[in-house]
Amino acid sequence: MRVASRTVFDFVRPDGTTAPVETELVYQADDPFAVTMRFRAGGSVATWVVGRDLISEGMAAAAGEGDVRLRPVTGRVLLLELISDRQVTVFRVRAGTLRKFLGATHELVPPGSERFDADAFLSTVLR
């Protein structure tokens, strides 16, 4: 079972202008701690896997210390930073979009009830 949503995040260029980027958010019950974000722009796709808890925390206050950071800018806008070896990519995200998506993931797998099947994971990896 999964939750998927297509939306648009605003890519923030270094000069402060923005460009829309088609974004797909995917949550799967069999990987209950992760949200996959797929960004499509110019014929390319970039995929990032983000912790669901980080998204929940970042809705209210700055969250993330590593390569993914999320924080509120206003009550309606969040700032998402994706940090790689080569660059920092920044997006403005509507808080309502993430709130609705998280709500659907919480209905599928309520927070605190997540389970990780290590045996299934290992059997997949060791094939």
Taken from the alpha-carbon principal axes, the silhouette is globular
* Contiguous uncertain segments of 5+ residues: none
The main β sheet shows up as: 7 strands, antiparallel
How many H/I helices? Answer: 3
Fraction in helix: 10-25%
Overall number of strands: 7
The computed structural class is alpha+beta
β-strand amount: 35-45%
For the CA atoms, what is the radius of gyration?
A: 15 Å
Taken in chain order, the helices and strands follow as EEEEHEEEHH
Spatial order of the strands forming the largest sheet: 4-3-2-1-7-6-5
Q: Report how far the terminal alpha carbons are from each other.
A: 23 Å
Global mean pLDDT: 92
Question: What's the layout of helices and strands?
Answer:
Elements: E1 2-12, E2 18-28, E3 34-41, E4 44-51, H1 52-58, E5 68-72, E6 77-83, E7 88-94, H2 95-108, H3 118-125
Antiparallel strand pairs: 1-2, 1-7, 2-3, 3-4, 5-6, 6-7
Structural descriptors:
single chain, seven-stranded antiparallel β-sheet
Tell me what you see in this structure.
- The chain has 127 residues and is α+β, with helices and mostly antiparallel strands.
- Helix content is 23%, strand content 45%.
- The chain is built from three helices and seven strands.
- The chain is globular, with a radius of gyration of 15 Å.
- The mean pLDDT is 92.
Give a brief rundown of this model.
It is built from three helices and seven strands; from the N terminus they run E-E-E-E-H-E-E-E-H-H. It has helices spanning 52-58, 95-108, 118-125; strands at 2-12, 18-28, 34-41, 44-51, 68-72, 77-83, 88-94.
